[in-house]
Amino acid sequence: MMQTTANQTSLMPAEWRDFFTLTKPRVMTLVIFTGICGLLAAPGTIHPVLGFTAILAIAMGAGGSAALNHWWEADLDKGMKRTAKRPLPAGRMRREDARDFGVFLSAVSVVLMGVAIGWLAATTLAIAIVYYAVVYTMWLKPRTPQNIVIGGGSGAFPPLIGWVAVTGEITAMPVLLFAIIFFWTPPHFWALALFVKSDYAKVGIPMLPVVAGERTTRQHILVYTFVLAPIAIAPWVIGGTSWVYGSVAVVLSALFIALAVPVGTRERREEDSMREEKLLFKFSIYYLFALFAALVADRVLFANGLIGPGMLQGIGA
């Protein structure tokens, strides 16, 4: 176990804001959004109260696993400028409190999902929590430069869980939604890692730019971007959505490629501002939000008879 980050007697009292910070609110926004999109895009209906409960359980599970991430990485966070002001490295909270808070949120989220929605959704949520808090945080992240690739699965679960909450089954469409986030994660985070490489190197996290170098990282960004594009378009290709989603996916993926190519082919210059990498990182966030928003819009338009049939027959819609 890592050493505590601050003397227990010198801790400042934790406020509710510190516990809220442990849930990683900015990441939680994306988790909740994609979970809602999976729920709304799924065929069938769910009572609004149950729908809200499902999203609440997803949010609690994400927050719980994030708190466990804070607990485990407190010493690493203290050594990085980007994370040094978090509650644990800043000495505003005991590590035991963060751990217990994370376990509590995680356990309640799974039980709530199981009792209110169903045990397939609850089991999937439990797998997502363990994947992020244990497989990624405790095992992969400190050991392999492919941590982001394999660990990307942890953030890909919310739309899958939202879909299962409505349909009670796992079919082709929710698997594709999972795959979109899974393959989106590496170019998104590696773009970030390129301009905060020194932070990861300082604390010994084997991120790809630190271990394999920038050139290899840039090549990997290109590869995953080109893999992501057809997967993002696949829901339309297999008949799971109409041209509304399909056209948005094509345009967004083309823009993603256009921004990734300069990042993938250039080399860092002296006094480099890393403008291209920062632009790709920011766009990748908008990309995912817009893509999933288009998915929901497509479903709403279809449900109201404003667009013709083109949804999956028999395997997901």
Plain-language structure description:
This protein has about 325 residues and is an all-alpha fold. It folds into 2 domains: about 15-170, UbiA prenyltransferase (Tetracycline Repressor, domain 2); about 170-310. About 70% of the residues lie in helices and about 0% in strands. It has 14 helices and no strands. Helix 3 (about 50-70) runs antiparallel to helix 8 (about 155-165) and helix 13 (about 245-265) runs antiparallel to helix 14 (about 275-305). The chain is flat. Mean pLDDT is about 85; it is low at about 1-10 and about 310-315.
List the helices and strands and how they pair.
Layout (H helix, E strand, L loop, with lengths): L15 H7 L2 H17 L6 H25 L1 H5 L16 H22 L2 H22 L6 H9 L1 H11 L4 H24 L1 H7 L4 H4 L2 H24 L5 H23 L9 H29 L14
Helix pairs in contact: 1-3, 2-3, 2-8, 2-14, 3-5, 3-6, 3-8, 5-6, 6-7, 6-8, 7-9, 8-9, 9-12, 9-14, 12-13, 13-14
